[in-house]
Amino acid sequence: MHPIIRSTNPNNNHPPSTSEPPLPQKLFTRREIIPQRNDVLWRIERGAVRTLTWSEDGTFITLGYWGAGDLVGYPLSRVKPYQIECLTSVEVTLVPPHLWNQDVNALLTHIQQAEELLSIVHRKPISLRLWQFLTWLGEKFGRNVEQGKLIDLNVTHQEMAEVLNTTRVTVTRLLQQFEEEGNLLRHKRRMILCFPNKDFLK
């Protein structure tokens, strides 16, 4: 499916200046790869993506998860190969280089979130690593519900394993353990964290 190009809605959170033409927007479908361009950054208006690379043996290495308001793009990374995969349907705005300085806060957020995820990946034991990753996802993509924090993003067990440098079997076993302990609930294809401030996170 080819991306659909349309003009920026002047009523969104990033109104174009009177001296600049409206910034173009594109729509991508779930699992589509955002094209490699070194001359623009992509500001996510709606949806979620992950950035990733892979090793010589083909093992995927997730570099980050990004949602509305985040900036992603090939100019932000020196990692090769580098890929931006849509986890949902995604709407992005193309931001040209001469406007990057207007998005300093988003660039700082990009750095901070990348470091947060890096610190989580090195936590031990693996049960703490997984729980903190789920908590991180809950803060970024979650919303409060009666039972706790609903992670409003479908991340597969394999994708979690790729982020946390473990196996899918280990992720599945630990998620089942969290459920048995009453710390995690399943809601359709989503997860609810019942105790996001659990003691072992401190």
Helix-strand pattern: EEEEEEEEHHEEHHEE
**Proportion of beta-strand residues:** 25-35%
Largest sheet: 5 strands, antiparallel
Number of strands: 12
Shape annotation: globular
The helix content, as a percent range, equals 25-40%
Mean pLDDT: 87
Verbal overview:
This protein is an alpha+beta fold. Helices cover 27% and strands 28% of the residues. The chain contains four helices and twelve strands, in the order E-E-E-E-E-E-E-E-H-H-E-E-H-H-E-E. It has helices at residues 104-121, 126-141, 157-164, 168-180, and strands spanning 4-7, 24-28, 41-46, 49-54, 60-66, 71-72, 83-86, 90-95, 142-145, 148-151, 184-187, 190-193. Helix 3 crosses helix 4. The longest helix is centred in the middle third of the chain and has 18 residues, at 104-121. The chain is globular and about 55 Å long. Residues 1-12 and 197-202 have low confidence and may be disordered.
